[in-house]
Amino acid sequence: MKVRVVENVLKLNDEVASMNRLTLRQAGVFTLDLIGAPGCGKTALLERTLRELHGKLHMAVLVGDLTTTRDADRMVQWCDQVVQINTGKGCHLDANQIRQAMAQIDLAGLDVLIIENVGNLICPVGFDLGQDVKVGMFSVSEGDDKPAKHPYLVHEASVLLLNKTDLLPYVPFNLERFRQDIAQLNPNVPLMELSVVKGDGFDAWRQWIETKAAAARGAAAIHTQ
Amino acid sequence: MHELSLAEAVLEIVRRHAPTDATVRKVRLEAGPMRGIDRDSMDWAWRSATSGTRCDGADLDLILLPWKMHCPECGRDWETEELFVVCECGCNRPHPVGGDELRVVSLDVDELSDTPESPEPPPATQRQEGASPS
């Protein structure tokens, strides 16, 4: 006997993600899911972001790693709401882990929630967490072929970052090819080229977050009127 | 190794859709190329996830779907195995549309016995498939 099903495999995850999204939007929180390979600079990006926006925006971070609290330890000096999620063997975060971690932070008065996903360009992309946007992060030292090899992330991302541009003179990296591959996979996605360590290009990223946070706050205010 | 998470999610769907006393023979799963699913890894993950469950031994029939491309110049839509291709019209910027499909489409199950609430006697002709009533 054949049983016809036609059901999305990640339906349960997606349902929890929708609950997360509703909760966060009603609270006026702008939420981004940061996805990139190990070593591309995700934690360094967040450290600098938290530092530069300290006192301007209330931010919280959920950080996923297989093990250790090292990332949370690095960020906690700039942010009092950092929750480390240890995934054990899991190569990505799922919506239920975010639901549980959200219970540990105070959403009232929060402007921005950043979810630093497990370092991985593949698995995290398919799991909706309830974020407003996915941000894909590459770095010069990984090579210019990473967008072409990871089309799902490029396609799904609302913003892409290229970090470590200060290394361009020292590393074989064809910037034109990198840009072309992205343009073919996701013609309209903004690409921000920056160096977290040196600060080049960082203003655009910081201003983008400020704009998005203001929009999320405004949308929630309209919603509750 | 997202295949293991996916295998567990597929198993959960089977649990909800297969009749409780049925033996599951085959699960058909369709996956778009965006999902980056490796067939061997998925096979291994499925065997691992189903071990000791009612799906133990069931085949996972994984259908890997092709890319669906759209040309911004001539508007043509087509399917292909290659992602970075040039359109027939010469445009070198065709981009993928969709490709993130991931769905269980059907299950093949053997029913252990005829359902007791069936008011009709067993048909005279032999059933096309299914286990014997004993």
Model description:
The complex is a heterodimer of chains A (225) and B (134). With 225 residues, chain A is an alpha/beta fold. Chain A is 38% helix and 20% strand. Chain A has a seven-stranded parallel beta sheet, with helices on both faces. Chain B has 134 residues and is of the alpha+beta class. Helices cover 21% and strands 25% of the residues of chain B. Chain B contains two helices and six strands. Chain B has helices spanning 2-17, 39-50, and strands at residues 23-31, 59-64, 67-70, 77-80, 95-96, 102-110. At the A-B interface, β1, α1, α6 and α7 of A face α1, β5 and β6 of B.
N-to-C span of chain A: 54 Å
Q: Largest interface: which pair?
A: A-B, 35 and 39 residues
**How much strand of chain B?**
25-35%
Shape type of chain B: elongated
> What structural class do the secondary elements of chain B suggest?
alpha+beta
Helix/strand order of chain B: HEHEEEEE
SS class of chain A: alpha/beta
Q: How far from one another are the termini of chain B?
A: 42 Å
Q: Which spans of chain B of ≥5 residues are poorly predicted at pLDDT below 50?
A: 127-134
Shape of chain A: globular
* Individual helix count of chain A: 8
Number of strands of chain B: 6
DSSP helix fraction of chain B: 10-25%
Query: Number of helical segments of chain B?
Result: 2
- The stretches of 5 or more residues of chain A where confidence is low (pLDDT under 50) are none
Calculate Rg of chain A over CA atoms: 18 Å
Let me know the average pLDDT of chain A.
Answer: 94
Q: Proportion of β residues of chain A?
A: 15-25%
- Count the beta strands of chain A: 8
Element-level helix/strand string of chain A: EHEHEHEHEEHHEHEH
